[in-house]
Amino acid sequence: MSAVDRPEGEAPDLWLEEVHGEAALAWVREHNARTEGELCARADYAEFRPRLKALMDARERIPYVSRIGHDFYNFWQDAEHPRGLWRRTTLASYRLAEPVWETVLDLDALAAAEGENWVWHGADVCTPARDAEGRPVWRRCLIDLSRGGADATVVREFDLVERRFIAAGEGGFTLSEAKSSASWIDADTLAVGTDFGPGSMTDSGYPRVIKAWRRGTPLADAPTIHEGEASDVSAWVSIDDTPGFERVIHGRSIDFYTTAMWLVGPDGSRREISKPADASLGFHERWAVMELRSDFVLADGTRHPAGSLLVAEADALMAQGCEAVRWTALFTPTPTCSLGGSAWTRGHVLLNLLDQVANRVEELHFDAATGGWMRRAVALPGPGTLGIGALHEPHLPDDPLAEHYWVTYADFLTPDSLMLAETGRDAPEVLKQRPRYFDAAGLVAEQRFATSADGTRVPYFVVRPKDAPMDGSTPTLLYGYGGFEVSMQPWYSGGFGLAWYERGGALAVANIRGGGEFGPAWHQAAVGEHKPRSHEDFIAVAEDLVASGLSSPARLGIMGGSNGGLLVGAAMTRRPDLFGAVVCQVPLLDMLRYHRLLAGASWMAEYGDPDQPEQRAWIERYSPYQALREGVSYPRALFTTSTRDDRVHPGHARRMVARLEALGQPVLYYENIEGGHGGAADNAQRAHLQALEFAYLWSRLGGR
């Protein structure tokens, strides 16, 4: 849409929402050239880019793996394989400093042969077949390939034994590019949700219709087995192939936080699974496991608070209903401790707890003799960020790894490590350790607290030079997110080490409301009408950094992506006097139109519905695009996005920049033509983007 043919009263820059429009892309290229011309000419960009790429390509990185049968698979990108290798090894080999890898799929070779810019998006493996001796063989899988990093993928069947794709002419399953879902019902049948034509996708752009597609038959003839509503986020099918506990579940994600579920019987009949609409419910063998987002009261008056993790007998749940069945609380939150995640070995449930934004792990197992759950704290590194993942393979009855699990650990000054733990034992085996990429001796990492506008105490982390003068002179970058119950925890970054800490910069990470640091209540305090509390918390942290003397507005920058892009956009427009630099990545910015663009409708449970007058009124009060005003001096921000981002529309960033320019404000803009919502498709693109951002930050915040 050009400026001359837009409807009367419509914003003059909507033509920039034409993602691949000729005029819009010409605008993008012009702005890219201007931004790159300025930032790439800086000496710090020339220093950062090759060093960042070398870090990303380094062989010393931890090759994280996932288990498929007896093997351990890893996806790896480096200088020789920029698109990546999908490869596998054994656990014995993985324990070695230099494992012996077998390449399963070379994405660079595939992209070259097919003339496509393929980006790896994962694989889903079929239930194993049996060989002549009855041993399980993991052979068939579905591989998701994205063009340029978009969420939409092409799905193709792959043979893990012969290491090749199975063509459609051979009876192989293939799906054209779409935001599809595909799950194995059995070796010859898929549950498929994809773009079947008009009406088959939800308003959010995800599958609404699920069909059972039999091998060798046309997809168009596949019968429909499940449907959602157009207003849903998506419809889906979940298939559990655990021997003896096979289950098929049909589900509707009604909005981002509420679901409805049905258990499907062998004859295809369905029974609705009783649960609170906003609770997350899953199954592990005989158990139903439920995580609460709101308080839950049983028929006998027992109250379980939001954030609890409950367990009950699955058969009893289906027979008695959610409010009558006997639930046992495996975890009950406290004011400072929330559930960060859980995982199951064969006989234990592992709880990853987040206590004052630091993880700790507990192992629980059911004691049949007492009918209760026994609990054990695990001695692991801390305080910092722990991740856990079980290795149990249910198709191996004598699985030697049935009680083993992965543990990862990192903090701001401690490189990532990967450990192999076993339930009932301490001192896990350290398998891999990331090298130290910077000298941490001159740095300190600490937790501080700021007071928000309504008096709420908001924690944040600071990494700074030990001898930083408290005179406001330290270049400081404040990072935040504040949405969708996502917690901001410590991470180790070689990139920040070489491009920020080495030059005397400080990093602050805000644990604001809207995140999940203290459970559902911390998140729900900043959704809908109360979303501005996230922005107030973030501003309070910024003010605390200035009040402490660590930084000053001229030396304080902010950064955030996606919902975090909305956060820094709102902070920039609300307090332009407080910041010297703004890096706004793949952002939401026009909150009166977000629900009409790509996946935006799926986030209305977080932000509200701009088509409802009352909700529109409180959204408009903080929407960054609408908040821009004439006569206000805004910091010269850098906005970044991706043409291939099919989740958050690049039109948000494009139009914000166009509006700033119309107001006579200086601004920088960079749009990667590939990259998807992550902003980059390979390490070369990632290094270029990060070098641009760090060069911009130093140009604005000072330094050597």
From TrEMBL:
GO terms for cellular component: cytosol. InterPro entries: AB_hydrolase_fold, Pept_S9A_N, Peptidase_S9_cat, Peptidase_S9A, Prolyl_oligopep/macrocyclase. Coiled coil: none annotated. Its EC number is 3.4.21.26. Keywords: Hydrolase, Protease, Serine protease. GO terms for molecular function: oligopeptidase activity; serine-type endopeptidase activity. It is an enzyme of class 3 (hydrolase). Residues 499-702 form the Peptidase S9 prolyl oligopeptidase catalytic domain. One of its GO terms (biological process) is proteolysis. This is Prolyl oligopeptidase. Residues 15-432 form the Peptidase S9A N-terminal domain.
